[in-house]
Please model this.
Amino acid sequence: MKHLFAFFLLVLAAALPATASDTPLKDPVQEAAARELMKEIRCLVCQNQSIEDSNADLAKDLRDIVREQVALGATPDQVRAYLVDRYGDWVLLKPPVNRLTWFLWGSPFLVLGGVLIAVVSSRKKAAVSEPLTSEEQARLDELLRAAPESDQIKGSEKQ
Amino acid sequence: MIAELGHFALIVALMLAILGATVPHYAIFRRDTRLMALSDPFAYGQFFMAATAFGALMYSYIISDFSVLNVAANSHTSKPLLYKISGVWGNHEGSLLLWVLILTLFAAAVAWRGKGLPLRFRSRVLAVQSTLCIGFLMFIIFTSNPFLRLDPAPFEGNGLNPLLQDPGLAFHPPMLYIGYVGLSIAFSFAVAALIEGEVTPLWARWVRPWTLAAWIFLTGGIALGSWWAYYELGWGGWWFWDPVENASFMPWLAATALLHSSIVVEKRDALKSWTILLSIIAFSFSLLGTFLVRSGVLTSVHAFAVDPERGVFILGFLAIVIGGSLALYAWRAPRLTPSGMFGVVSRESALILNNVLLSTFAAVVLVGTLYPLVLEAINGTQITVGPPFFEFAATVLMSPLIVALGFGPLLAWKRGRISRAAQVLIPAAIVGVVTFWLVIWDKAGGIMMTGFGLALAAWLMVSVLMEIAERTKLFKNPKKFLTRLVRLPRATWGMSLAHFGLGVIVLGITVSEAWTSEQLRVMSPGDTAEVAGFEFKLEGVEPIAGPNYTAVRAAFTVTRNGELVAPLYAEDRVFSDPPMPTTEAGIYPLFRGDLYAVIGEYLGDNRWSVRLYFKPFISGIWVGAGLMVLGGIISLSDRSRRIGAPAGRRRSKPKQPAVPVGQTQEG
Model:
């Protein structure tokens, strides 16, 4: 079935000279859809660059494939599936959410939650001040007894 | 002979580093101040030797001495002088030598400018710095020696990657390295403070300028790199979230957090333990970045296994430095007594929120960068973690940061009132909400995200202005506005400029993402195409020859309503050594956006494939980064002016809690 489909594509591709060599599709709606898709597809020989933004030859070939598929009426999901079939998940700049990537997609929330918990607990710890030693307590009492006097001094300074 | 001199200097530098890393600890143990004072000459000596080695390598490049393997592999006689010089750090060995040069330069600067630090503490700092130096020098001498000879010497070298032959990229690595390595000072200060078991506001006062200087260079280096990507790589992409970029972005995030948390240590004597940890983390990100870029692990896990010597060395070094410093932290940090109480709503809490969000983002970027490597190593699955993931994380984590950023500077230390800050910020909130609804109503960008991004940018910029108005009492007492404006401390100006710059960056990103217009055309000379109201006319295509490349150059004239706006020249270059094509986009920046043209393939019959763009307000990204750098420089100039005086006053009144100082509104 898959082979038949591929054969069908080949025949059609041969019959569609318009898609050759990086020329935009005639239908602007289709071209816009193809463009959106290109932003999600990785240029296989670049570092994290999309085929939409790369001048590598390989990116051009992939752009032609995407346009070809869109011109044939494939939905975005079908085009993605078509490419993943050939190049693996690697070709998608946006990794699908699945068993292997839930930690990745969850990481902003997991890390943020962890850091917040750490901050709150350390603030709580810091808020509980250590009890005063007997020496410190004695000094505090002394200061408190002396306090009214010092207030008076301040008051007289103002006048 | 010159190359051997460089080689020799490296070995002497290693000897000095070993002495510099051990003698001070012994001297402190023996309480021998004369011996402690030796750490200064050790630092100067290491710098002198590293400079000699670097000079020797640069000389070999300038005279094209192809009997030196490194020169033969990376240079060529036909290269312009600028690229012969920048070629020194355009390769693995040379860039490491640059790293060591900067590391020793910073150590020498601490020895020279740090006379105000207690001798004991200064020699501890320099000892830690020398320890880092040992690691890098050993790495260079044993695995990446740039002075190895080649016999027989070839007549011609292999040349430098043409993508790197560009003025922007000639200065990008040194700036970035100054930023990376500048963080080593914060690291050395942190480790020395852990050994000494004490962190004081004075400590933060010393660390902050170094961190600020490193941050300025990191910001500048990253901006320069992204600008280079904009005009040189592909068609105007300026940030790809690729691992090499992330490697520089993570230290930047950590340094930004450190910059903010050390304010709290300096002004309020709180967050000490966390700031120490952050100093260690920030430099660890720098080391990790070097590891990621230099070990080859990025291209593939397998490339790492093919040439494991360097990778294993760096991995071991990383484990010792990061593991060792974290272990030291775990052991000694509990001794740092927490002090400086503050309420939930306060400047301190706002800065903690800043730190939480920035460090979470740094950690998430790390997860995203390493995820494909780890996954491949575990079960062989290959995935790509591309821009969509990082943009998602940036939106989730940076939006609250920008909202909070409006409030932070308006809150008082210790206990602030959110209602008072909110009152001042009402205009900013109104502008933000109106912007959002205008975008949604106009449907110009078509999507929620554009409205959201613009609202954030508007909120941030207006709130910075409102904050300045509040500080100068513009609305309460407008007569004295100008005098008050002039009297604002330079540190405040620096902060406001940097925060405003962030707003400009968000604006530039959002507007250019949403409203870029583009035409992909097949054109012959004489044809015109319209992009966003601009008429691009292809005047002609001619072959030209550069010093070491040939190119076709397309000349466009751009008009608007019949009036000439600008001429535009786009080139497609083919370099000879090594053979490789590069595109040089034709860019003309206008205030409202950039005109951007790229010439592509020749399709025969005098027809060329051409890409034409109008990218509205994209230069905001680099203008904003420039404002951040400028803000940093202004703030730094303030500190260097003030640094002596308060230190003296503090010494005369020891152990006095710094409460009155902390209550002022100064940033």
Q: What stands out?
A: The mean pLDDT of chain B is 86.
